[in-house]
Amino acid sequence: MRANSMTLAAVLAVFPVGEAWACGAGFCLADSGWDAQGGNTRPGLTLGLRYEYLKSDQLRTGTRNLPNFTAATAAAGDEITTTNQNFVLSAGYTYDEHWQVDVETPVLKRYHQHGSATPGAPDTWDFTTLGDVKVLGSYRPGETPGGFGLRLGVKLPTGKINQMATDGVTPAERMFQPGTGTTDGILGLFYNSTPADGSLRWFVNGMVQQPLNSSGDNGAGMGSYKPGGSATLATGLAYPFSHELAATLQANLHVGGREGGMAGVPANTGGKTLAVSPGLSFAATPDTRLYAMLQLPVYQSVNGVQLTSRVAATLGIVQRY
Question: Residues 117, 76: contact at Cβ < 8 Å?
Fold first, then answer.
């Protein structure tokens, strides 16, 4: 069995960075591109579309669950629920067996509620808009698809930072805005095992993302803002049932730092999440791959009080040209 018949193309090596936010994480932790990292040395374009669903509706402090608030019981500022639906367009170009560049453009559909000063009438945000774009460059020193590699990149401040609630006058918390307003540096290392016979494959990768500046006031008069940095570590394997179908399993660790700046909420941001992510990958054609994954948290520890998720899902398609 040939490895490239299973892995297809070098899909955009996306490392979703799951922000540990008081209002709930914004992105799934499961790495939707790992099984193709290093799997393609043919020059050309790769396009992908990924859908992520992540609902955060469980209040937690440390490692303990807390009773949840409802619209009727929440006081001003009490978190009720956050639902993130992300539509992520990816585009990557492989120059040769060593170099690849990737761009990830997210469109965020976000719903959030927390308590207001009026009992029973929570503040509500419900919007669909562009998020922060990421640009990543990858380098593999070896001549073969597998092995070690280095990744450098940047997250650009393309998302809005002044999104208002449905009443048109209440600004969203900075942690909940579509964009952070900062430029972040990204550094990653990865390793892929790509057996020539197409047998069991595995990977490991790590990445750090750090804001390089602070964002100014967004018009709400709350001052500057700086999101916390983050580090992710992922490992996983793929078991091929046939030339077309493979089962995948990942373990994903995310460590998020506390926010800074006058508009930051350091007491209720940052934490650690360890998730297990089972999934399936299907090669519809030699150049088209479909995949689906679940994200199941097995350990969550947060600073202060935060909304956390119990399950998340990712669906995607990747096409090589």
Answer: yes
